[in-house]
Amino acid sequence: MEPLGLIFSLPLAPLRGLIRLAELLEEQAEMELRSPAAVRRRLEELAEARASGEISAEEESMAAEQILREMIT
């Protein structure tokens, strides 16, 4: 790398590190959101909400579809 390029790129190094950290956190959150255990837990919570009368069958169905759609996209 050229000395002049190094001089201009060094001040941005902390910013690049912060951006990479944010990308890693986003990747980890997405993996956890799509994990089979997390999906099962969310579907169980929906079933419990339906059983207790908090949501209707239609709302449960729509939410379950959304959860499964998020898992595969």
Key structural traits:
73 residues, 4 helices, 82% helix, rod-shaped, mainly alpha
Secondary-structure blueprint:
Layout: H1 3-9, H2 13-33, H3 36-51, H4 57-72
Helix pairs in contact: 3-4
Tell me what you see in this structure.
The protein has helices spanning 3-9, 13-33, 36-51, 57-72. The protein is mostly helical. The radius of gyration is 21 Å and the shape is rod-shaped. The two termini are 40 Å apart. The model has no long low-confidence stretch (mean pLDDT 89).
User: Averaging pLDDT over every residue, what do you get?
Assistant: 89
Helix content: over 70%
What is the global morphology? Answer: rod-shaped
* Strand/helix succession: HHHH
Low-confidence regions: none
* Helix/strand/pairing category: mainly alpha
Number of helices: 4
Radius of gyration: 21 Å
Q: Characterize the main sheet.
A: none
What is the straight-line distance between the termini? 40 Å
Strand content: under 5%
